[in-house]
Amino acid sequence: MAQTVIRLSEKGKRTLKKTRENPTKKATARVPKDVGAVVNALRILRCLSGSSKPLGVAAVTRATGISASTAFGILRTLARLHYVSFNESDKTYRLGLAMAEMAAGLLGVSHAELIRPELERLALNYETLILLWRITEDNRLVLIDRAHSQTAVRVEIKLGYRMPLLAGAIGRCVAATLDVPSSELRRRFAIPRWQAPLSFDDFEKQVFDARNRGWSLDDGQLFRGLTSVAALVVDEEKRPRFGMSGVSITGQQSPQALTALGQDLVALAATIGSALFPRPDIVSTGRSEAGARSASHSEVIHASDESAAPALPSYVLPTVNRMPGSGRRARKT
């Protein structure tokens, strides 16, 4: 019977010899290699999620074994993208708002808890009280969270404080989203108790400004001596869901600082809106329904009659506590 003889070149013979000496080398080479930066970033996120308190770079380094320079670079990048939140006062990190976009369909964390680190960041940066308001179904604004500044003299407003829908800077932003006749807007404008009343014509102009730039200003009209800047968080159908405002004693903030705060509130509101209320064309129907279920389990605040008049904001003196191959084929003859 005829035999088939395969003649190998010298290079082929050497390759065959190496394979016989180490038969597992070829298989081992095909195992995919993990991307180190991705692995380290995930280890850091897991570290922060498992901690009961914010962590500094040194603590993250000890817990993960990642070098300090690498951990710092990753944390700084994650903070820029809002996956972690950086506390400037004590140089610590915690999970950030952007994590909600990936976890909203799985977790029942309240919206206020997710937003709080961003409120604290703005309060520290602008040295002002930052408030988070829920817009209720019975047309009220209810204060559900706040972040204080570290200034020696500051404004204090108690949690649960209620206001009519069109009151203050928040109210102007809400009015900018309404599609109602001027007569109805005038009726609603008359409900809040303005301490320094403004005309309805001025109110309409300020609503127009809020619609164009995304934020609004109340310069002592609702409460004498207090200046507030506000922006709205809207859902996928552009309905107002939350309001955020910065409140300070009149004269504490320059006009430039108030403008910058307004712009930052608009940017933050857009980030929160896209994370908590993703559009159906971006997120699958199943996840959108899960997010709606999560929202239904978050804080539910029942508002009372619009004529209710809770205690007014007060000035307080706080205690300041200082705290991111080309092989050659064998021939067959």
Map the helices and strands.
Elements: E1 6-7, H1 10-21, H2 25-29, H3 36-49, H4 57-64, H5 68-80, E2 84-87, E3 92-95, H6 99-103, H7 111-126, E4 129-135, E5 140-147, E6 154-156, E7 162-164, H8 168-177, H9 182-189, H10 200-213, E8 215-219, E9 226-234, E10 240-249, H11 255-276, H12 285-296, E11 314-316, E12 331-332
Antiparallel strand pairs: 1-12, 2-3, 4-5, 4-10, 5-7, 6-11, 8-9, 9-10
Helix pairs in contact: 3-5, 4-5, 7-11, 8-10
Task: Write a concise keyword list for the protein shown above.
single chain; 333 residues; alpha+beta; Arc Repressor Mutant, subunit A; Beta-Lactamase; 2 domains; six-stranded antiparallel sheet; two-stranded antiparallel ribbon; 12 strands; disordered C terminus
